[in-house]
Amino acid sequence: MTQTARVSPCQSPRAGGNTSRRRGETDMCAAHKTSAGILAAAVAWMNGFCGAVKDFVEGNSKMPSASGETIEAVKKSTSDQLGHYAAILTKTVDGLSALPAAPVPAGDAAKQDFLGKCTSARDKTVKAKAGLDASGKNDTAAQGRAVEGLPSLDS
């Protein structure tokens, strides 16, 4: 029984009409090589984007809990929370900033949108923490000032 070699639309017979191939070997046309390259680049880029977002989500779920029975203890707890939030936002900003240009325009638009929100939130959080940490020991309004106006990433 003879076997007939199957040639897909993007595979071409070898020189001399020989269509036999070793197992797993293919010849791809330029269009499919380009499409495969774009797909691989898109997958790699999305892995980086999603990795940065995943780190933010995981970090957010590990937020220190609020606690304290004295003004000083509550102030320290709030400062710890703000510091944690600033750290995960910084990690997210760094991860997004390290991404190369997206292989598709929508990727760059999403990156810039999320990067803008995370950068703004980080900067406001760092400022709020610095103001809280610099406040006087008995400044009971300091905590309210620190958390007032903190951004939400969905805005």
Explain what you see.
- The N and C termini lie far apart (68 Å).
- Helix 1 packs antiparallel against helix 2 and helix 2 (71-97) packs antiparallel against helix 3.
- This protein has 155 residues and is mainly α.
- It is elongated, with a radius of gyration of 27 Å.
- The longest helix is centred in the first third of the chain and has 32 residues, at 30-61.
- The protein has helices at 30-61, 71-97, 105-134, 142-147.
Write the layout of secondary structure elements.
Elements: H1 30-61, H2 71-97, H3 105-134, H4 142-147
Helix pairs in contact: 1-2, 2-3
Query: In what range is the share of β-strand residues?
Result: under 5%
How much is the average pLDDT? 78
Low-confidence stretches: 1-29
- Rg, Cα atoms, Å: 27 Å
Provide the structure class. mainly alpha
The helicity comes to: 55-70%
Order of helices and strands: HHHH
Q: How far apart lie the N and C ends?
A: 68 Å
3D shape: elongated
List keywords for this structure.
single chain; 155 residues; mainly alpha; 61% helix; elongated; disordered N terminus
Q: Gist?
A:
By secondary structure, this protein is mainly alpha-helical. It is built from 4 helices and no strands.
